[in-house]
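[audit] Reproducing an earlier prediction to check determinism. Same input, same settings, fresh worker. If the tokens differ from the archived copy the diff job will pick it up downstream; this log only records the rerun itself.
[audit] input (210 residues):
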Amino acid sequence: MTAARERPLCVKVCGITRAEDAVAAIEAGADLLGFNFYPNSPRFIAPEVAAPIIALLPRQVLAVGVFVDAERPAVERALATAKLGLLQFHGNESPEYCRGFAVPAIKALRVASLAALEAVAAPYPEGWVLVDTADPTRYGGTGRALPIEPVARDLARRLFVAGGLAPDTVTDVVRRLRPLGVDVCSGVERAPGIKDHALLKDFVTHAKTA
């Protein structure tokens, strides 16, 4: 039998570009909403466009700004403009780079298999980390899931799992890995940056009742 959860699962919905999708995610029970500030992303949103959407969020739902190898001043400007609660670094940012901002940071780690995760996470021993499927040309949003393999308990306690998750797959991931959270993007979309509200509701329900 699966052990009881030590804490409520966090659900992060990434790639928010529209206010109506943010509202739907909140109503579905999402805990974190991700806004992609990487210009090459099909889900890119400028900080000044994200700001009024983020202003709609209740206090318990945090806005996460997603960056890829951005200059520190650009991150600082986005943080101030959009009133972000968390940062997520999805490129080759060093541990030193990830520290020192006014809010905590999640470091995304791209791996070919979960067996490699512990070694890749070793330079980032503190704070939350996110695991996503490695792609030689793309940063996140591959829509490809990682095969489920054992993850050390201490690492799972601070781990968000991303990569190809959908309402019909998230339950198994949560039950087998017991991560801190899960992150969904393309698995609840009708098109890049356009969320399917029924899928959103199903995803959050399946994740949190696993």
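[audit] rerun output stored. Observation attached for the diff report: The chain has a mean pLDDT of 93.
[audit] end
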